[in-house]
Design a protein that fits this description.
With about 220 residues, this protein is α/β, with parallel strands linked by helices. It has a single domain, classed as 3-Layer(aba) Sandwich (Rossmann fold), CATH 3.40.50.150. About 35% of the residues lie in helices and about 25% in strands. It is built from 8 helices and 8 strands. The chain has an 8-stranded mixed sheet. A hairpin with a 6-residue loop joins β6 and β7. α1 packs parallel to α2. About 5% of the residues have low confidence.
C-alpha cells in the first residue's frame, strides 16, 4: 500500500510528546509508527495490522529503520489485540477504514484498509477506551462527515473530542478530512484548520511546517 496524505497528516499531527507507550491501529506498512518513533525518542510503539502481507512489509520497514527495538508489529485484528490487554497505552492512533455503505472493491487488501467491515468504528472506540490509561488520548483521521459522526459516538464511550483540525485541499473548497484528538476529560474543543495546497498546486507553508520532517522533497 502506498503512503497516503491521511497517514502523513496523522503521524505529524498526533500529540506524542509525553507518550511512553503508543499503539498504532491498522499500521499498514508502518508509516505512522515510524513517524511517531522519529518524533519521540523515548516512546515504545506497538503496531497492529490484520493484513498479513502489510504486516510483513511493516516489519521489514521497521527492521531497516533507526528504531527496530522501539517498534513491535502484531499481525492480528485490533479486536483480538485489545481483548488481550488492559489499560497500558498513553496514546492510540489510527487511520481507520471509513467506508460503510460504498461498493466493495475487488481487492481484499483495499477492502480491509478502506472499508469499516473489519473494524467498525464502535469497536475502535470501545477497544481504545479499554486499553488507554487514565488521561490517555485517541487520535484519528477521517473524512469530514465520518469524523463528525465519530465525535458523536465517542461520547458514549466516555471519549471526548478536545482538539479538531479541519483539513482542506485548497482554500474555498469543502473540508476533506478531520484530525481528531479524544481524551477521557470533556473540555472545550480547540478548533483550527489546515490547507494542503496553494492555488498553483504547490504545498502551503503550514502544510510544509507540519510535515516537512518527513518529506525529502521539502
Amino acid at each position: 500500500m502506498r503512503v497516503n496524505t491521511d497517514g502523513v497528516l496523522l503521524g505529524a499531527w498526533a500529540d506524542v510528546a509525553n507518550a511512553r507507550r503508543v499503539l498504532d491501529v491498522g499500521t499498514g506498512t508502518g508509516v505512522i509508527a515510524l513517524m511517531l518513533a522519529q518524533r519521540n525518542a523515548a516512546a515504545h510503539i506497538d503496531a497492529v495490522e490484520i493484513d498479513e502481507c502489510s504486516a510483513q512489509q511493516a516489519k521489514e520497514n521497521i527492521q531497516n529503520s533507526p528504531w527496530p527495538r522501539r517498534i513491535t508489529v502484531y499481525g492480528q485484528s485490533f479486536q483480538s489485540f485489545a481483548g488481550q490487554r488492559t489499560a497500558c497505552y498513553d496514546l492510540v492512533v489510527s487511520n481507520p477504514p471509513y467506508f460503510t455503505n460504498a461498493l466493495l472493491p475487488p481487492s481484499e487488501t483495499r477492502k480491509r484498509t478502506r472499508h469499516a467491515g473489519e473494524l467498525p468504528h464502535e469497536e475502535l472506540l470501545s477497544g481504545a477506551k479499554k486499553i488507554l490509561q487514565p488521561q490517555g488520548a485517541l487520535c484519528v483521521t477521517l473524512p469530514f462527515s465520518e469524523g463528525m459522526t465519530l465525535m458523536e459516538r465517542a461520547a458514549a464511550h466516555q471519549l471526548f473530542c478536545t482538539r479538531q483540525t479541519a483539513v482542506f485541499s485548497r482554500k474555498g473548497k469543502p473540508p476533506i478530512r478531520l484530525l481528531l484528538h479524544f481524551s477521557d476529560t470533556p473540555v472545550s474543543i480547540k478548533k483550527d484548520t489546515l490547507v494542503i495546497h496553494c492555488d498553483d498546486g504547490s504545498y502551503t507553508p503550514e502544510y510544509k511546517a507540519l510535515t516537512g520532517a518527513f518529506y525529502l522533497k521539502f
